[in-house]
UniProtKB/TrEMBL annotation, chain A:
InterPro entries: ACT-like_dom_sf, ACT_dom, ACT_ThrD-II-like. Residues 47-123 form the ACT domain. This is ACT domain-containing protein. SUPFAM superfamilies: ACT-like (SSF55021). It comes from the Archaea. Residues 1-43 are annotated as: Disordered. Residues 21-43 have a biased composition (Low complexity). PROSITE patterns: ACT (PS51671).
Automatic annotation (TrEMBL), chain B:
Pathway: Amino-acid biosynthesis; L-methionine biosynthesis via de novo pathway; L-homoserine from L-aspartate: step 3/3; Amino-acid biosynthesis; L-threonine biosynthesis; L-threonine from L-aspartate: step 3/5. The keyword Zinc-finger does not apply. GO terms for biological process: methionine biosynthetic process; threonine biosynthetic process. It is an enzyme of class 1 (oxidoreductase). Its EC number is 1.1.1.3. Signal peptide: none annotated. Residues 7-144 form the Aspartate/homoserine dehydrogenase NAD-binding domain. It holds the Pfam family NAD_binding_3. Belongs to the homoserine dehydrogenase family. Residues 35-57, 316-336 are annotated as: Disordered. The active site is at K219. This is Homoserine dehydrogenase. Keywords: Amino-acid biosynthesis, Methionine biosynthesis, NADP, Oxidoreductase, Threonine biosynthesis.
Length: 211, 336
């Protein structure tokens, strides 16, 4: 794959796009379809943000799925001093891959149990956290989650459940969704509809407001 | 300016007490069943203290209200008919036809006098009717005190110009904010914190208006009217908002466990109202725990999104007698 690094203007632009998204401005400034206008099979630079458990070998385990699926590693930024609220270590990895292979890499990472916070500028470009409360368990939480998962705009990245009064009383869940660029509103609307159907309440984030 | 204050609750009384500090004179005060009218303007000409020969004695009014539950021996009708420059409408907010506040204001306008409202009802429920009454009058209306207490929300939006404001959002109900703050800080449930808030006088015996989001929604409806009418070239094209246009959900059923899950993730829940020229929405929302909108206790915050000037934040006391009176008296000053 490294023979693609020929310094053509397209490649330089792609790298810039990826750098933008690494700054946290994914979705807002980045082209939502970075592959548009390029030949479908052209590799481009992608940035994924991963959350690793603070244990030996975790980084290597996370890099294997990238290399094994045809990704060309460009850089790894290991933010060791910076932990997420749950004590994980965020790692940012840049690599080149064709769009197809990029999809495969993300799938492979997830099937290895690696938590992909943000990937590239196309899929999972936006992350959104919300709360659900009500009779979550009586209304079949796993059905709720799989129906959110089935929605094209988003996938469920993380779920935390609190049922302090047992499973028959009101319980709460915090959901982290990964949404496609520009589709956060659609994802929230899908959750809202589902919640209305199951008589659950949603506490939505204020999106687009960096308080 | 000569003021007639209609309504003798916390806000009305504070206006009476503070008016002279702002260079204004109180010529009449009324509550729902009694009134006092200054010498020379009342039918019997008996009122007026020694220190304010032309006006009503503020201390005497406040003392009578506290001791005997009346403001004076006159009829409220006399206060409405008094010779004032500005009528201050500070009666309790009512929904639907917004009476009697609405008629108090239109009667002032019919006499070509100004009106300043602390009562949200007429501005939220009958904005179009109010504007029509203003169009037929030499008097004007102002209503800064209806949104965010001491916070200059309406005048700031007017200064920026509504056409250049894309949205206004914020925490606009101190009672709901106090409850959410305490629930998050102490890990307590809603019922426990509500009882505490009632003991402290932060929540009313019937807290529905605050915790169901109605109060915040009325304020957002008023802001939506300001944005909609202010941005329209022709007011006839502007969309009028009432409470029925607002999408409202309150905090009554938010469980403590939801706040704990939010806190684990560096977030918290606030009852956020949002108004644009097209929508009004009030709902509990997730916000960053240490973010600008996560004001504590009974504090309010108004966040204004502008086209050319980024975002403005104004926080402060959203309720209280002297706080709201300061907004009323600021409005009176703008009418001079």
């Amino acid at each position: 794959m490294s023979d693609r690094r020929d310094g053509t203007p397209e490649a330089a632009l792609d790298a810039e796009d990826a750098a933008d998204s690494a700054d946290g401005s994914a979705g807002a400034d980045a082209d939502p379809s970075p592959d548009g206008g390029h030949a479908a099979a052209a590799p481009s630079t992608h940035t994924v943000r991963l959350e690793l458990v603070d244990e030996p070998g975790q980084l290597l385990a996370a890099l294997h799925p990238i290399a094994d699926n045809g990704g060309n590693l460009l850089s790894i930024y290991h933010e060791r001093g910076n932990k997420t609220p749950r004590g994980r270590i965020p790692v940012e990895v840049d690599f080149e891959a064709t769009p197809d292979r990029f999809e495969e890499i993300v799938e492979a990472l997830r099937s290895e149990g690696v938590n992909v916070m943000q990937a590239g500028t196309e899929r999972y470009a936006e992350e959104v956290t919300l709360l659900l409360f009500g009779h979550l368990i009586d209304t079949d939480l796993s059905d709720t989650l799989s129906r959110i998962e089935a929605c094209e705009s988003a996938s469920v990245a993380d779920v935390s459940l609190a049922a302090p009064q047992g499973t028959e009383e009101v319980s709460s869940a915090r959901l982290r969704l990964e949404a496609r660029a520009g589709e956060t509103d659609a994802a929230l609307a899908a959750v809202r509809d589902l919640a209305a159907e199951k008589e659950l309440r949603v506490v939505e984030p204020l999106t687009g407001v960096e308080a | 300016m000569r003021l007639a204050v209609i309504g003798a609750g916390a806000v009305g009384r504070s206006v009476v007490e503070l008016a002279s500090e702002y260079g204004h004179e109180i010529v009449a005060v009324a509550d729902s069943s009694t009134a006092t009218v200054a010498d020379g303007s009342g039918p019997d000409g008996t009122r007026g203290g020694a220190n304010s020969p032309a006006g009503v004695d503020p201390d005497a009014v406040v003392a009578r209200k506290a001791e005997r539950g009346i403001v004076g021996d006159d009829d409220p009708e006399d206060a409405l008919a008094a010779d004032y420059d500005v009528l201050v409408e500070a009666t309790p907010t009512t929904l639907g036809d917004a009476e009697p506040g609405f008629s108090h204001v239109t009667r002032a306008l019919e006499r070509d006098r100004h009106a300043v409202l602390a009562n949200k009802g007429p501005v939220a429920e009958r904005f179009g009717d109010l504007r029509a009454a203003v169009d037929d009058s030499d008097g004007e209306i102002r209503y800064e005190a209806t949104v965010g207490g001491a916070i200059p929300a309406v005048s700031t939006v007017e200064d920026i110009e509504p056409g250049h404001v894309t949205a206004v959002r914020g925490v606009l109900n101190g009672t709901a904010n106090f409850i959410l703050t305490r629930m998050a800080a102490e890990g307590l449930d809603y019922d426990h914190v509500l009882a505490e808030a009632q003991d402290l006088g932060v929540a009313e015996a019937d807290p529905s208006f605050d915790v169901d989001g109605t109060d915040a929604a009325l304020k957002c409806v008023i802001l939506a009217n300001v944005l909609s009418f202010g941005a329209a070239d022709d007011p006839a094209d502007a969309r009028e908002f009432t409470l029925d246009d607002a999408d409202v959900s309150g905090i009554r059923d938010v469980p403590g466990s939801a706040l704990r899950l939010a806190a684990e993730d560096g977030r918290t829940v606030r009852l956020i109202g949002e108004a644009t020229g097209e929508t009004v929405r009030v709902a509990p929302r997730l916000v960053p725990e240490n973010g600008t909108l996560a004001v504590s206790g009974t504090q309010n915050i108004v966040q204004i999104e502008t086209s050319h000037a980024g975002r403005l934040n104004i926080s402060g006391r959203g309720a209280g007698g002297p706080e709201t009176a300061s907004a009323v008296l600021g409005d009176v000053g703008r009418l001079e």
